[in-house]
Amino acid sequence: MKKAVFIYSPDQLTYKFSDTHPFNHKRLHLTIDLLKNIGALNDEDIVPARVATDEEIALAHDPQYIEIVKKAGHGELTAQQGEPYGIGTEDTPMFQNMHEASALLVGGTLQAVDSVLQGKSQHALNLGGGLHHGFRGRASGFCIYNDSSVAIKYIQEKYGLRVLYVDTDAHHGDGVQWSFYDDPNVCTLSIHETGRYLFPGTGNITERGNGEGYGTSFNFPIDAFTEDESFLDIYEQGMREVFEFFKPDVVLTQNGADAHYFDPLTHLYGTMNIYREIPKLAHKLAHEYCDGRWIAVGGGGYDIWRVVPRAWSHIWTEMTDQPTPTGSLPKKWLAKWQQESPVPLIPTWNDPNPLYDAIPRKAEIEEKNARMLEKALHIIRTEKNRS
Asked: Which UniProt keywords apply (predicted)?
């Protein structure tokens, strides 16, 4: 059995709305090139993504919606016709062959699932996935198909396992949460910037599930301008408690890299420190509770030059038990990509220190987050005692 596989096909880059749209999968190419430059990723580690079938996508999406996406990608749909489905909007514009491109991202995540659950590898990474805002019959927030929702349904149907979904994207993982809100065999955990300031506006601590699924949805909404220490404290305590409560058979982590200070779409003040630690704890707990069964996907991350390649590289090096990269980035990589980057690249694995001016409200923000964490942990422990 391999330690981990890296799911990737160059065609995953065809999931592209426009040259100016903030969602840009060029970040996949940047990350792979960085990992290869440091000798952490070899061609034999890479497994090509496959295309998900319509039947597989329909595990989490209406067949009628799938047909709408196909029409949009073939120039057979007006913006007016697409609007009820979230297609042809400012967030999710139409582009050529959008169904085919989206099905490849979903298939990549299913490929990762099968690699782990068929015993080919302990872990699997599909950075092209993590499109967590897609709904059953509607696109949302740059996400056409929700590969994580499809993958979890696929795991349930094909393998009959209990799934813990962990989402550390700065935006709440709403599409996945609502897909399994009444399902007691899927637990969702999301740490995100509070919806008071940020799309999609959900992810309140009171969103706890419904019916038989009540008590399997956990949210940790953090305040704008939250820094590393507070973020990691919430992550570590929340993760440990939820793993201990739910005892999953397999864990699927969504690794949006948009909680960083440089990200243009969010208001959090994370640094590369959090992206070193997030996969470390996921890896450790996967071995403690799931026999190592860990599937990871990408997600948000809109500073594709300075943040995403460094952040996502840490997932792969952690999965494969390689040393955490430190020191300077390869000169060859910096020289190659600085020609294209609109901003000066960060030449080191760590961020400059200090990265930003001190925050006047630091103590207040940390206190608010600590109170939220206390309430959230109380909810988890109450559910644990109830079960």
From this structure: Acetoin catabolism
What contacts 237, CB < 8 A, 6 or more positions away? 373, 377
8 Å CB contact between 242 and 251:
no
Contact 124, 118 (CB under 8 A): no
Cα separation of 122 and 283, whole Å?
A: 10
Measured CA to CA, the distance from residue 251 to residue 387 in angstroms comes to 20
Strand boundaries in 249-356, DSSP class E? 250-254, 294-297
**What share of residues in the chain are helix, strand, coil (percent, to 5)?**
45, 15, 45
- Other C-beta atoms closer than 10 Å to the C-beta of 80 total 8
Which tokens go with 94?
Answer: 């139409």
Cα 248 to Cα 78, 173, 204, 219, distances in angstroms: 44, 19, 23, 17
Q: What angle do CA 66, 14, 312 make, to 5 degrees?
A: 105
Question: β-pairing, 250-254 with 294-297?
Answer: parallel
Each residue of 237-296: pLDDT tens digit? Answer: 999 999 999 999 999 999 999 999 999 999 999 999 999 999 999 999 999 999 999 999
Pick from 87, 92, 48: nearest CA to 69: 87
